[in-house]
UniProtKB/TrEMBL annotation:
This is High-affinity nitrate transport system component. The gene is LOC102587134. Residues 1-24 form the signal peptide. Keywords: Membrane, Signal, Transmembrane, Transmembrane helix. Pfam families: NAR2 (PF16974). The chain crosses the membrane at residues 296-319. GO terms for molecular function: nitrate transmembrane transporter activity. One of its GO terms (biological process) is response to nitrate.
Length: 331
């Protein structure tokens, strides 16, 4: 009996340890963009088994000093671009890295250095036809992903977008107007926008107005993202001379905002974006103050009802007084 009890105890410990490991989720959305990554290759379509890629990476200089103290190694991977994931569940992107199927091809794992990193890779023969990008994961001493970098954004920031409010300006809902202008970022290669069809401009909550508000939470999965809840306008895509003036709706809540524009292809998929703030959402933010107090119409109605109430009260007083006089006369 003692042996059986011990065996059960050991088995319980093993199972609990296994479940604890499984529950240790590492979410892509929680990783810092720790590396700047570039991939050099010949122009045009690359041939598996023949062409080569040269990768270069270094520490993201926007990070604070000592941010890389726990960085031990870098893992380079070849990843499917969104256009080659559509309707292919076996390539689906998941925020949970253990479930993510975006980056299935390991290129190399090397010790971490903050600069002067490069690696040349001949594309393997078994790589399938697809559109790709390269992502580098930073690993800690336990082999866990704690940062990343990639040679493109999941959604390229190919639009340059500006809005009329200045940094910190306070606007009144129901009265003020915002003028938004946007155009193609000319730093991208010619033909980048060949599949751009429409642009959807949205009003988005800044981080300071998302804090402790789960209903405004950001998520890398756009279907779950709650950052940009207010649609301003959707227009056909043009590379330049785009502008729209929006009168702030009366029901827009008090908060700090920025503007973002999403670019869609012919299938309705988001393929690019642009925004009025920086990547950390700290610049070019403006505040909207919601309508508070009573509207003038309510004040007018209240005044009318007050006057009516006074007149009614006086009227009832005289009616009751007259009745009382008549009763006394009968007596």
């Amino acid at each position: 009996m003692a042996i059986s009890t011990r065996a059960i105890f050991v088995a319980t410990i093993v199972i609990c340890s296994f479940l604890a490991v499984c529950d240790g989720e590492i979410l892509f959305s929680t990783l810092k963009k720790a590396l700047e990554v570039k991939a050099d290759h010949k122009a045009g379509v690359l041939m598996a088994g023949e062409d080569i890629l040269t990768f270069k990476w270094s520490l993201n200089t926007t990070l604070s000093a000592g941010a890389d103290s726990g960085y031990k190694s870098v893992k380079l991977q070849l990843c499917y671009a969104p256009i080659s994931q559509k309707d292919r569940a076996w390539r689906k992107t998941e925020d949970h890295l253990k479930k993510d199927k975006t980056c299935q091809f390991k290129i190399v794992t090397v010790p971490y250095k903050s600069s002067n990193n490069n690696y040349t890779w001949t594309i393997k023969r078994d790589i399938p036809t697809a559109t790709y990008f390269v992502r580098a994961y930073v690993l800690n001493a336990n082999g866990e992903e704690i940062g990343y970098g990639q040679n493109t954004d999941d959604k390229k920031q190919t639009l340059l977008i500006n809005s009329s409010p200045s940094q910190g300006q306070v606007l009144q809902a129901g009265e003020a107007q915002v003028t938004i202008t946007w155009s193609l970022n000319n730093s991208y290669p010619t033909g980048t926008d060949t599949n751009y069809k429409t642009v959807n401009v949205k009003l988005c909550y800044a981080p300071v107005s998302q804090l402790d508000r789960g209903w405004r939470k950001s998520n890398n999965n756009l279907k779950k993202d709650k950052t940009c809840q207010i649609n301003l306008v959707t227009m056909p895509y043009k590379p330049s001379n785009n502008n729209f003036t929006w009168t702030i709706h009366k029901d827009v809540p008090t908060a700090t905002y920025f503007i973002r524009a999403y670019v869609y292809d012919s299938t309705g998929e988001v393929v690019a974006y642009g925004q009025t703030t920086d990547a950390h959402k700290k610049t070019n933010l403006f505040k909207i103050t919601a309508i508070t107090g009573r509207h003038i119409t309510i004040d007018v109605c209240a005044a009318c009802f007050s006057v009516f109430s006074i007149i009614s009260l006086v009227g009832f007083y005289f009616v009751e007084k007259r009745k009382a006089v008549k009763i006394s006369q009968r007596k």
